[in-house]
Amino acid sequence: MTIQIPTLDFLAILPQLVLVGMALLILMAEVTRLRGHKRLLGGLALAGLLLALGASAWLWQGPARHFQNMVVADSTALFANVIILTAGATGVLLSVGYIERISDSVGEYYALLLLACAGMTLMSASTSLMTIFMSLEILSVALYIMTGFNLKQPRSTEAALKYFLLGAFASAFFLYGAALVYAATQTTDLVQVAHFLAPLSTPSPMAPLLPVGVGLLLIGFGFKVAMVPFHMWTPDVYQGAPTPVTAFMSVGVKTAAFAALLRVLASLTSFDKPWLWVIAILAVLTMTVGNLAALRQSSLKRMLAYSSIAHAGYILVGLTGNNDQAVGATLYYLFAYAFMNIGAFAVLQTLENNAEMDVDVSAPNGLGRRQPALAAVMTIFMLSLAGIPPLAGFFGKLYVFKAAVDAGWTWLVIVAVLNSALSAYYYLRVTVNMFLGSETASGQIVLTPAWNLALIVASVGTVLVGVWPTPWMALARTTLLALVGG
Fold first, then answer.
1. What pLDDT, on the 0 to 100 scale, is given for residue 71?
2. d(Cα 456, Cα 468) in Å, to the nearest integer?
3. Rounded to an integer, what distance in angstroms lies between the CA atom of residue 160 and that of residue 152?
4. N or C: which end of the chain has fewer CB within 10 A?
5. Distance (Å, rounded) from C-alpha 363 to C-alpha 449?
6. Cβ proximity of 257 and 123 under 8 Å
7. What is the pLDDT of residues 433-456, one digit of tens each?
8. What is the pTM of this model?
């Protein structure tokens, strides 16, 4: 009898191995003599993220399947890695000095952040529904704990409980959907699902289960990217979580989930028309509800939370293109969104440190007179989120809208443009009041070197990706979804 040993290539998951290894090192350092040097733990976390980023760049060689076709090291996964690891690195910079004030478990915090990054990067590289589910649980469990890390604030514990309960429901929907897809196709491999849906494939008596399964998968993804009507958790969780956690998860989770969703949609090559209409309707609901709710918020953090929902809607507009151009546009948008959104939360964090509480939308009023440099970078982030040229947000929207128009979704793009104009009101309100509004806060705003570095990275990234979009978009367009063939 011959025993077939599967071919395993651990180099394909080198970024994840680096992250997990560094997380274990941080935990060991936490219980040794290094425990008193808490800022060194942040340095170790940052080093782990940079090493994982270097490993991702080293693996940029084209699609290669590993672990019995469950993981693919293609340019889509590696580009998503760049976004996720950049978000993680800026999240670490924002956490230095902040986490020490709210918790003694500094090492555990940084280890959880690295494990969350490992789950996110694995999710973006997964081509099996089971691997997607496993990575989804890894990142989710880490984020549940990080959300409730501020035990001094009851709101943080409440947010963690809400996130856990609703996240458990979303995971159940996803797992049930994967089970139905398996019942219909006898596989959880997305490549084999694509072959099953090919015109020459043999019909299966269980095929009617497939659309139900895909619908349940979409619910699971919808929760993670905060699609309407699966967005209920977002404002409360974003508001209650420590701000560095909110900044990190608002980018990392979206990137991982959208990368995995792109792979699932690519496997539905001959089954796409009904689902493109579903995505178009979800895009309209997500954009509109997110922007209308953001207009009504008195909390700056909740306003940014609903803004994040609206941006998920813009990304969904790009997904309706369902072609290589749409894939590149989506990843470019996520790349641009990472800088401007994390930057906005970074400025919010400095205002929170000054107020020691959840800040009102009027908190930045007069900031241009107190801290002109801080007001200038916040203006960059607000204008970019609003889609004002020549910043990154403008070109992100331009590319996803163009992908949708080229695919015949002109009416959807018109709705998206109207929503973008609507969002400009609450973004520009913050910007104008920073320079013309009466000051509502007092006291000195203290910026640490780590925060300064995070703000520099975010502001330079927002400007650079905008005024020089061609190389970044060209890089995003090289992404290949290795789902056809095997």
1. 82
2. 17
3. 13
4. N
5. 23
6. yes
7. 888 877 765 556 667 888 889 999
8. 0.91
